[in-house]
Amino acid sequence: MGIAAENAELERDILERVESFRARLSSALRALPNNPNVIRISKNCAAVPMSQVMAGRMNLTAKYHLFEGVYDELAKIVEKSSPSQIRMLIEGIIYEGGTYKSYDDRKMVHVHPDAVAHIKTLWGSD
């Protein structure tokens, strides 16, 4: 096998590993547990106890209390990002205050501390 063919094979292997990693991580993010303090009424409706709202610095955004919204958005970002971008995203959430820029509107999203803990456990950080 020539050097060019070996290089092409190496590139295919790397791309396959990156795609596999993205798929596993996005699936694992979507499988993380939701907020047990939220009472799901229907697919598009949930109740958050006022004690939880007050504990969350009066954060009234759905994503803050309904963890699956954050997990799903992070999974979508992971599916389109390079491994180094993924590491910066996840470690930024874990170590830099539990925030990230939304994929849709580029606004800062605050992640509930319990969701950050789930993400940290998944990532394997101490």
How does this structure look, described?
The chain starts with a helix and ends with a helix. Strand 3 and strand 4 (108-110) form a beta hairpin. It is built from 6 helices and 4 strands. The protein has helices at residues 3-30, 50-55, 62-65, 67-79, 83-95, 113-123; strands at 39-42, 45-47, 99-101, 108-110. It has a two-stranded antiparallel sheet. It has a two-stranded antiparallel sheet with strand order 3-4. It is mainly α. Helix 1 (3-30) runs antiparallel to helix 4 (67-79) and helix 5 packs across helix 6 (113-123). The mean pLDDT is 90. The protein has one domain.
What key attributes describe this structure?
mainly alpha; two-stranded antiparallel ribbon; 6 helices; 126 residues; single chain; 4 strands
Short description:
With 126 residues, this protein is mainly α. It has 6 helices and 4 strands. It is elongated and about 65 Å long.
From the alpha carbons, calculate the radius of gyration and give it in angstroms: 18 Å
Principal-axes geometry comes out as elongated
Q: Please trace the helix and strand order, writing H or E for each element.
A: HEEHHHHEEH
**Termini separation (Å)?**
44 Å
Number of domains: 1
- Tally of strands: 4
Structural class based on helices, strands and sheet pairing? mainly alpha
Mean pLDDT: 90
Strand content: 5-15%
Helix content: 55-70%
Output the strand order for the largest sheet: 1-2
Taking pLDDT < 50 over at least 5 consecutive residues as the criterion, the unreliable ranges are none
Number of helices: 6
Largest sheet: 2 strands, antiparallel
